[in-house]
Amino acid sequence: MAFHGIVVVAMAKPSIFRAERSLSQDLYADHTIYRSGASTRRRDLVFVVNPRGANGRTGKEWKKLLPYLRSRLGTDCNLLPVRASCGEMIRLFHCGLKVMYLSNTNSLSACKICESLTSGPSHAIDITREAIREGADAVIAVGGDGTLHEVVNGFFWGGKPVSDHDSRGTHTTALGLIPLGTGSDFARTFGWKNDPREAIERIAKGLRSRIDVGVISGESGESHYFINVADIHLSAKAGYYASRYKRFGNLCYVIGALQAFLQHHNQDLKMKVDGGDWEVYSRVTALCIGNAKFFGGGMKITPNADPLNGNFEVVILQDFKWYDFIFKLHKLYNGTHLLVNNVTSRSVRSIEVEEIDGSSGIYVQSDGEYLGFLPRKFCTLSAAIDMIC
Ligand SMILES: Nc1ncnc2c1ncn2[C@@H]1O[C@H](COP(=O)(O)OP(=O)(O)OP(=O)(O)O)[C@@H](O)[C@H]1O
């Protein structure tokens, strides 16, 4: 995929946090950590690792990856030493970050990297917010789409982007990804595989691109963000069930879809696109709002979506029967379903979706995570986050 507007940015000179030793005030009180160049701003890479991702595979892969990460990112460092205050260490500790030293240097003269293992759902959101406030150069999600989704949500608070405590408008924290999940669907749009070494190369090179993010609002007024695909009705219900079967790998999506089908009824929905008039779509099976192209473990559901173009691609499937999925499934995977009867695609900047009778509880998910029920409004936030591409 060709990316326009790629900017080369001097990557944070990283400092590594070793997994074997957790932070304690006593342990670190006498040590030195490093800041990059002449700047007094810390230049940190923060890795947010979901050890339970891909049924525990993420945690195992991450442990195996650490020596390579140290050696690959550590060699790029050219940092000036400064004395770390106790306060700084304690702040890192409070935001769940483990501080570690580069094992391949005795002098502690290399750069610093933070790892934080998530302790449960939503923890990645808090870690990310804290890391951005502390001036991290990049926050890197290590896991699947669910972990990436939480990290993206950590870039915002109270409807606004989170910023560095000391920001004078010049510093931007970038988002990075080491895809190590079950589906890792967002990475597919960029052609990235679940190959952590390749991801570390990207991080070392530090190319950044400003990508769009979707924002979802509901009746509560609270904003929720997504980076990949938000979807409604059958696919959302299938995703809800699939999350219970992640131990079966990509098969979870098939099991989830079968279970969702058992209680499925196509529903009439009304939609308002880009602030226009309400339109009725009859017998909707699923409605997918793509900032990127893939969901459900590799289905190219919104094949024209591009997280760099400022628009969503909305794909609406109407009046599908269970056998349509059997005969048309391959088209959903390769992205040729747009030519099938009863499939509509449109490019939008915002879309509001409501039920007509308002009684059935139509499922909504974003980035494969269950969100709740209709009604919802989905808007693009153009070029909202700097992503390491
Ligand atoms: N320590 C933890 N224990 C249990 N669940 C966690 C923990 N940390 C994060 N989670 C939750 O695990 C969920 C799934 O994680 P993740 O997306 O990384 O893996 P996956 O589901 O295997 O991959 P994919 O979403 O790409 O299919 C996330 O929604 C997150 O809330």
UniProtKB/TrEMBL annotation:
Q: What is this protein called?
A: DAGKc domain-containing protein
Claim: ATP-binding is one of the keywords in the record: yes
Identify the SUPFAM superfamilies for this entry. Answer: NAD kinase/diacylglycerol kinase-like
* Alphabetized Pfam families for the sequence: DAGK_cat, YegS_C
Entry's NCBIfam families? YegS/Rv2252/BmrU family lipid kinase (TIGR00147)
Any Gene Ontology CC annotation: membrane
Q: Name one GO biological process term.
A: phospholipid biosynthetic process
Tell me a Gene Ontology molecular-function term this record carries: ATP binding
Q: Does the keyword Nucleotide-binding apply?
A: yes
Keywords on record: ATP-binding, Kinase, Nucleotide-binding, Transferase
Record-annotated DAGKc domain positions: 40-220
